[in-house]
Design goal:
By secondary structure, the chain is α+β, with helices and mostly antiparallel strands. It has a domain of 83 residues: Arc Repressor Mutant, subunit A, CATH 1.10.10.10. It is built from 8 helices and 13 strands. The chain has a 4-stranded antiparallel β-sheet with strand order 3-4-5-6, with helices on one face. It has a 4-stranded antiparallel β-sheet with strand order 10-11-12-13, covered by helices on one side. A 3-stranded antiparallel β-sheet has the order 7-8-9, with helices on one face. A hairpin with a 6-residue loop joins strand 3 and strand 4. 28% of the residues are buried. Bound molecules: zinc ion (ZN) (2 copies). One zinc ion (ZN) binds next to loops.
């Protein structure tokens, strides 16, 4: 499957049960024996359980570069493995929904309680007002754990979203790992003042928008500041942190842009100044009298 193959073609390929079963069988053989993952033709047909040889051959051929043909049989390619894990993650299923589940914290804009909900392929953090919602790209498998383990789900979401803010700050699209230009820019929604931490992926088109404070979340000094109090900020849902609320930043200068975020803990404050590229340009600690 070359770079020119259209995603539509990929969806086509995995829309057929026999083809998915062939890929799964080869991926399983790969997991069982990574040094010798080749499956002989007859063994593969038996594993997939298709009697009709013509039908089986047709689907095997259709898989193209997802499978490679060796002298002793077939082996899944690395692209094929990526397709198997995409199918297993549930991301390709537009019908999949999860939640809503109540989560700690309150909406930055209206102060209402928040819930997490998965629909249309994304996870939403929402108070119920669409314009206040934040959207995170995560896989259904992240959420689809033990129903009683809500706290664990929240921690998994927190870690994943933390990682997304880190990646976005470094110009990596969390969804497809394509190129994004991170920036601190004026909030485009007309009824909301202030700035946001933003980036549009040039490859997959995903648009990221976080409160400005989220750009400072992965700063080593912020991590240390919390660590001193025994808190791992990387596993804390950022929306429960006051300084990560929308509009909490102070615009120190517009040209060039400098936005200050004040992280408070007791009488201590860690102030971080960010530039328009969402980089931290200076930090300062102070203690109130
Ligand atoms: Zn709200
Ligand atoms: Zn992308």
């Amino acid at each position: 499957m070359g770079a020119d193959s259209s995603p539509t073609e990929m969806f086509e390929l995995v829309s057929n049960e026999t083809r998915v079963a062939i890929l799964r069988a080869l991926a399983e053989a790969f997991r069982e024996s990574p040094t010798d993952p080749v499956v002989a033709y007859s063994d593969l047909r038996e594993r997939v359980g298709v009697r009709d040889k013509g039908n089986f051959n047709y689907h095997l051929d259709r898989l193209g570069d997802l499978v490679s043909r060796e002298s002793e049989g077939y082996v899944v390619s690395s692209v094929g493995l990526a397709v198997v894990s995409a199918v297993a993650s549930g991301s390709l299923d537009p019908e999949w929904t999860w939640g809503p589940t109540d989560v700690p914290g309150e909406c930055s804009f209206c102060g209402d309680s928040l819930e997490l909900r998965y629909e249309n392929g994304h996870l939403l953090l929402t108070c119920g007002v669409d314009d206040h919602a934040l959207l995170f790209p995560v896989s259904p498998t992240l959420l689809d754990g033990d129903a009683d383990a809500t706290r664990d789900v929240l921690e998994r979401v927190a870690v994943t979203v933390y990682q997304q803010t880190l990646q976005l700050g470094h110009g990596v699209c969390p969804e497809c790992q394509g190129a994004v230009t991170p920036e601190i820019a004026p909030e485009p929604k007309s009824d909301q003042d202030g700035y946001y931490f933003h980036g549009d992926c040039r490859d997959c088109g995903f648009q990221y928008g976080f409160p400005v404070g989220a750009a400072a979340l992965s700063n080593p000094e912020v991590i240390a500041f919390y660590s001193e109090a025994g808190v791992d900020v990387r596993t804390t849902p950022f929306w429960t942190l006051e300084w990560c609320h929308a509009g909490h930043e102070t615009i120190v200068s517009e040209e060039p842009l400098r936005a200050r975020v004040d992280v408070r803990r007791g009488s201590e404050t860690l102030s971080l100044t960010l530039d328009s590229a969402a980089g931290v340009v200076s930090t300062e600690r102070s203690v109130a009298d």
